[in-house]
Amino acid sequence: MIKKIAFLIINFLLSYITFSQPFKGQIDSTLLPTIAPAHYVPEYDIDVAVDPNAWIKEKRGMHVAFGSEDELYFRKEVPHTNDNTTWESTGWKGERLNTQIVVWSPDTLEQVRFTVSDLKNANGQVINKDNIWLKKVCYVLANFPYGSNEPDCSPTPYKNGFLMPDRFEDFDRFDVPGRTTRPVWLSINIPSNAQPGSYTGAVEINTKSEHATLKVTINVQNQLLPKPHDWDYRLDLWQNPWVIANYYHVKPWGNEHKALLKKHMQLYADAGGTYITTYGVHSPWGDNEYAIEGGMIEWIKRKDGSWKFDYNIFDQYVELAMSLGIDKAITLYTPLPWGERFRYMDEATGNYAYERWLPTSDTFKTNWNAFLTDFRTHLEKKGWFSKTYIGINENAMEQTLSAIKVVKAHSKDWKLTYAGNWHKELDTLLTDYCFLYGNEASVEEVKARAARGQTTTYYVCCNPAKPNNFLFSPPIEGRWQSWYAAAHGYSGFLRWAYDAWPEDPMRDARYGSWAAGDCYLVYPGGNSCIRFEKLREGIVDFEKIKIIRRLARTSNDEAVKKMMQAFDEHLQTFNNEKTFNENKLKDDIAKGKAMLNELSNKLAK
Description:
Elements: H1 2-20, E1 26-27, E2 63-66, E3 86-93, E4 96-105, E5 109-116, E6 119-120, E7 126-127, E8 132-142, E9 161-169, E10 174-176, E11 180-189, E12 197-206, E13 211-224, E14 234-237, H2 242-248, H3 255-270, E15 275-279, E16 298-301, E17 307-310, H4 312-323, E18 329-333, E19 341-346, E20 351-356, H5 362-382, E21 388-391, H6 397-410, E22 415-420, E23 432-436, H7 443-451, E24 455-460, H8 476-488, E25 492-495, H9 530-553, H10 558-575, H11 582-602
Helix pairs in contact: 5-6, 8-9, 8-10, 8-11, 9-11, 10-11
């Protein structure tokens, strides 16, 4: 009993220390917005500095330097950049290289604007400045402090909020209020036809009264990264197209909606997006989003009790995604909606009816057999059957196995995908199996699936706390995820969700009990962010690893064989990771990148 009381006292004290100390970007709970503001607010500015005295030590006027794409620079904190005025990076033809430029001042800076030059090599060859883009990094409200280990799908224990740099925004110029910092994301897309060599250029930064110049050097290697459409990586980010119509107040599936969707989905295509998320039933996740996923296929019960199905919305969305190059897989959700609730139109009354069809029931089997027969006919007419998966979301094992049995009894040709914990009894039944990180099959079991022609991926969601893509996650974790995929033998990565926006996604990422950023990776207007670009960096690394492996297998160079052996040994670091220390993750990826660069040069033709 004494031990128990002591344990409770220690926990209380630790909790008090944890939740009373200041964190970067912190906002006092009394100032937190509970509803959207009554007028336009570009971003919240109600955070406080952890060390306000640090600004007193800063020399007056504009400070500008290259930062790192792996750091978050907080609005009220003096950044640690070592005043770097040069940036050098190495990449393949077709690769995107990223960094951040950080502007800060103890005084207000007015009309900060950037000008980039072409990049030129010693032979006069040019990477045109049109391949360089700059985005202002904006601050968004989170419900956990930076690097928190605590998220587990439960409500946050913190009463305060935290402003995190994440969202990208186009800009012509901007002001920097005194004693604040503004990061700017810099990306260089190396053209696929660029000549190998070293290219240099400059970034000019001007205000109304000050000027600075930063130098850029890009080393282009003689290796070619394919276009995103041709990447092997299986990227599955679940989409909700209704959220776009809801946010912009436009008619779903009208011309305005589809124009917005194209811009919105282009980011996914440019990251190598593979799966098109479709919905065969209405609101499969139990109405738990700000914009409900309507069914893309209308189930209609005729007066005689037979079924007919309207594929109009399904076809529109699939065709739109495919027009952008997202055309390798279609997932239809789901025979297992939450609560086994199904909606259909009753032709006799014109009313919607809701019924519960348990997968173990004859009603489920009869109705889904009718649907699957009709759906297959439709898919075959469209030429889509071979790339369509029936999505079996995680449920009680009896229900899961019953649903799979019904689908497979209808036709062994149906492909099945499932996201959930590793269950041996599901292994051979699933064409594509996606494990929750930490509840996975072994490397050997993943290899066995590959040998059978099955694909295997993994995912994170509102848990685990690390590695993740939360608003407050260290950026390196997003890149680490694909290095882990390569080490474990996975085909790719899944995440819910791509775009399940809360009420005010541009400024406030809090979403019920879930950790901020869990539910979306891109912003309204087709705008990317630090989290999405870091995820994309890792996907590119994964592709480069696969290409280097293929090249190394055909090489007779003993040095190459030794280098590949050393690289494979290093990859095991990612399988063995337990602590997720931020600096260790950075070091592990930096070492892996250096080894890839050396192999790239060695294997260049």
